[in-house]
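Our preliminary data section would be incomplete without showing what the modeling component actually yields. Below, a chain of 516 amino acids is followed by its predicted structure, encoded as tokens that our downstream tools consume directly.
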Amino acid sequence: MRIVTGSEMKLLDKWAVEERGIPTVLLMENAGNAIAQTVKQIFASVSGRYVIILVGKGNNGGDALVAARHLHQLGAEVKLFLLFPPEEFQGAVKTNWHFIESLDLKWHQLQDDHSFYLLKLSLNNCDLIIDGIFGTGFRGDPQGHVSRAIQVVNESSCPVLAIDVPSGLDADTGRVGDPCIKANYTVTFAWAKRGLVLYPGKHFVGKLVVADISLPQDALALLDKEEHYIDRELAKKLLPQRDWEGHKNSFGHVLVIAGSRGMTGAALLTSKAVLRAGAGLVTTCLPASLADLFDIAFPEGLTRGMAETRERTLAAAAWWEMSPLLANKKAVVFGPGLSTHPEIGDLLEKLLAESLVPLVIDADGLNVLAQDTGILKTAKIPVILTPHPGEMGRLLGVSAQEVQANRVETARLAADLFQSIIVLKGAATITVVPDGHIFINSSGGPSLATAGSGDVLAGVIASFLAQGLEPACAAMLGVYVHGLAGDLLAESKGIRGVLAGDIVETLPLALKTLKS
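Predicted structure:
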């Protein structure tokens, strides 16, 4: 699913009107009709349904007026509540208001206690509320009588359909105003808006419908960067084919560099995820004193004990034992449970400067990298960084709160600055490639918020690299499959108490579900 921002949508609308000669009133007509058709699908029969419509003064309000006319023609009982006096309507909105006046529909302007009493009274027995107050251009918090109207709607038990975006939601960032319409359905036009698929905005959208209003698809060529929603359809296309005559070497060999005293579990989770996601072989490098026990715990993998420090972390000297192992590998994971011992930084510097194998850097690998991100410039191979907000903050020298304030633009900045693929973990994980293309994930939820979940994701991404996917595709598919495993666990176990080991064991089912 293609995604655009609110500001980009404004540009595309303007282009359609000025360059292609498509009248605004026609686009508004198509939008309003799409809303009416969606209502028809919700109720099967619109006739006799009581619909309350909140109308703003911008184009969103114009879409609402068109929807009112179509729903009236379909037999619905429609009542309008205007948030602004009709004298403020302009252009195509004013044109559609004249059509409404000719139909003699009931309407009130929300401006005093009496009009709000009428709204509350009307909501007691309505079948649907349509929110047409604000569109994609809104920023900040609703004020005055608009704020009051939104609060009244949210307190009602009547289902709500939002036009384009729920009023109060930032179409670019997913930020929700105080207050913001909590919709059961959102009908957006032409392309999904970024804020509709980012949290916390996604909580306020309900079921998302993307309606065609005849905006030319070639308008997208005006945009410098592509932005996509990683849904099941896209993820399924990325899934590598499985050769029925293949063997373990056919599906790739991953090298995992992970683990230290007290953190061998991270190495185990990552290594298991490599195999559970479909790679044929995995070799795990960890401190020599931990290797024998790890070998017993993970008989399906190959274990290599390496030179270690007195603190039982990998030593810089381990590079000379490790580098020959890169020869037949298709991917490397560096970081889970490694610690931030100074010699880990020496290892990472060597790996970046000399390896020719695609690399996933996670966890302590990112914490070490944050001490000198300049070493990324020595990389000869594609690098995938998989930070959570705290790790991203350390890489960029900002707080996690600043990262979360605008996750997409932060990830885009990091991808450009580090010339690496960025996987910014969290609700609606964001993948950005150095050319600026953005991919927002649709799968996953609270069940994934558990210790070790990120170690599993690093292994899954490396597994798809080993199976032959390009780095960006491996990152996107890895994020989706990891999230899908979380969704399946949420269905069977609930969103609480899921362990990272559960995610690992559910990966084959997630892959089966995706393929079916």
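The chain has a mean pLDDT of 96. The longest strand covers residues 281-287. Preliminary results of this kind motivate Aim 1 of the renewal.
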